[in-house]
Design goal:
alpha+beta; five-stranded antiparallel sheet; two-stranded antiparallel sheet
Length: 123
């Protein structure tokens, strides 16, 4: 898509603070972070929304979901249990879908949001 900002980032036409890339996905820091860690995991294939995904995208969606904890850990907000079983860290993953879902860029992407609270817009 010629006017899609995420297609341009994937094609290296627009710079980003890249944290991951393979044949299918890129991941980079959000330019308007809502938390100390705010990454976007973006398929290189242009898919407008999660609602446009079909069975053929199952492996890609699974790959995105499995990449999120790895990147969260690498960025310092991974979920972990200590020797006593106490939990710490953590993050959330989010797909915005459509205008009422808050989607601003119509290219499928997963937000990975974490780090010490409070985050913007949350107590």
């Amino acid at each position: 898509m010629e006017n899609c900002i995420f297609c341009k980032i994937a094609a290296k036409q627009i710079p980003s603070k890249l944290v991951y890339e393979d044949d299918d996905l890129i991941a980079f820091h959000d330019i308007n972070p809502a938390a100390p860690v705010h990454l976007l995991i973006v398929p290189k294939e242009h898919i407008p929304t999660l609602a446009d995904c079909t069975e053929q995208h199952a492996a890609l969606l699974g790959k995105m979901a499995l990449l999120a904890p790895r990147l969260a850990q690498e960025q310092g907000c991974g979920y972990q249990l200590d020797a006593q079983g106490e939990a710490s860290g953590g993050y959330k993953t989010l797909f915005n879908v459509g205008p009422d879902g808050g989607q601003e860029v119509y290219h499928l992407h997963m937000h990975v949001i974490g780090g010490p609270r409070p985050w913007r817009g949350q107590r």
